[in-house]
Amino acid sequence: MDMQTNLLDRLFDAGLLIDTGVDGLYGRSGAFEDVIARFEALIARHAPEATAEVIRFPPGMNRAHFEGSGYMKSFPQLAGTVHSFCGCELDHVNLLQCMAEGDDWTGKQEATDVVLTPAACYPLYPTIAKRGPLPEGGGLFDLQSYCFRHEPSKDPARMQLFRMREFVRIGTPDDVMAFRSDWMERGSTLVSAVGLDVELDTANDPFFGRAGKMLGNNQREQKLKFELLIPVTSATTKTACLSFNYHQDHFGQTWGLKTVNGETAHTACVGFGLERIALALFARHGLDTADWPEPVRKALWG
Description:
Helices cover 39% and strands 26% of the residues. By secondary structure, the chain is α+β, with helices and mostly antiparallel strands. The protein has a seven-stranded mixed β-sheet with strand order 3-7-8-12-11-10-9. Helix 2 crosses helix 10. The radius of gyration is 21 Å and the shape is globular. It is an enzyme of class 6 (ligase).
């Protein structure tokens, strides 16, 4: 049995995760949720002193905004759409018959105006662009959302539906680069406080196709993405639990985001994979939080 399946089975046996019959789609116990809530409180204590605007979007976003983001150009393999039945009564009868016979019943499902949110920050940019030019000093935003990525796996750290906590900085290149640099230090300090070993490394997003390999290489060469790697299912092949991303002016150009001086805004974000961090904590310290080391319990529970 590999280490990924072994950890997943132990989490199921302990009742921390609940098997739904679909890889990467799990229920969470109260104990699992409590760890996430405590860690989010720890994030808040390490957040910058400047007050961020708190926004919570649902796990679905406007399909037109999704299409405008360019996500399908780079990550079509990960996207998830919301479809609904749009047929007549006869179509309904046929649907029920297909279900009863075990056949494909989705033929009359049509795309709605909702797409599953791929990253917590994606609904933010068109929202802020509608407000007009940014105020003096730009913007800082605190986000959290369930996100969807279609990559079913036995690896418990690669869920299809998971939560992402993000801080997003919008402003001048100097503003957003300073923000990202600051959070790379803060993130390492924060995770070390709960007894986890961390490694910071350059990274790239999983761009699709042959052209995607070139995009990934360029992203690494320009050091646009860093990840904080933490052991979850393997001490050698570590899991990215935090990411620090500089988007340059991509979203600024896409949505017409402007600084107070009328220049195209740049953006950067820090993202916390909340389920991954919880999994790292359970893998490192054991499945019963009452037995976790006292310094870790003090950092999380006070």
